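Hi P.,

Sorry for the delay on this. The queue was packed all week, but I finally got your sequence through. Input first:
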Amino acid sequence: DYGVEVLPLKCDITVADDIRRAVRATLDRFGRVDILVNNAALWRGQSSFIDTPTSTWRKFIDINIMGVVYFTRAVLPSMLENKWGRIINVASVAGVYGNANMAHYSATKGAVIAFTKALAKEVTDKGVLVVGITEYPPMDYLDENNEWTGFDAEYAKLVAEKTVAITIANPWPLIGFIATLIATPICKQRFMDFAEMTPSVTD
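Then the structure:
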C-alpha cells in the first residue's frame, strides 16, 4: 500500500474517442494531468519492405504514431491551462538509424522523434516540456553486462543540456530514468532549448 489513488482505465489507443473518454475520466477524478508517458507500441514483426503488407503498415502507424498523437492532443489543453506538464515519448534508436527488415517500425519511431521535436518548439515556453527517449547512454554509465548503472542527477543534467533523446534497452532503468527526468530540477530548467540540442549525447 503506497497510499496513492489509482484509476485503472481501459481504452484502445487507435480510437481517439476512447482516449478522450479516458482522459476525461482522469480529469474528473484528479482535476489535472501533469505527466503523460507515451509508451504503448508495436515492435515485433520483422519482414522485408517488399514483404510487408499495407495492413501491417497501417497497424504500426495507428498504434505507434496515432496513439501518441491522440493521447497528447487529449491531455495538452489541460497542461497548457495549468502552465505545467511533462510529455515523454518513448521512441527507438530504429527511428534514428533505421533497422533492416523493420522499415515499418523504423518509420513510425522516426515520426515520433520528429513529432517530439516539433511539439516541444510549440509548447516549451508555455511550461510544457516534451522529450523523447531513444539513444543509448554514454559507456561510462554501462557496466560489464551492458546494463545501465544508475539514473543520477549528473546524467540527467547531461541529457538536459545535450539531447532530446536517449535509449535504454532494459525496461527497469528506463522507468527509473523517466522518474529522474520528471523530478530533476536541472531538467525542468534546461530541457527544451531544442534549437541548440544535438541528436545524441554521444555525438
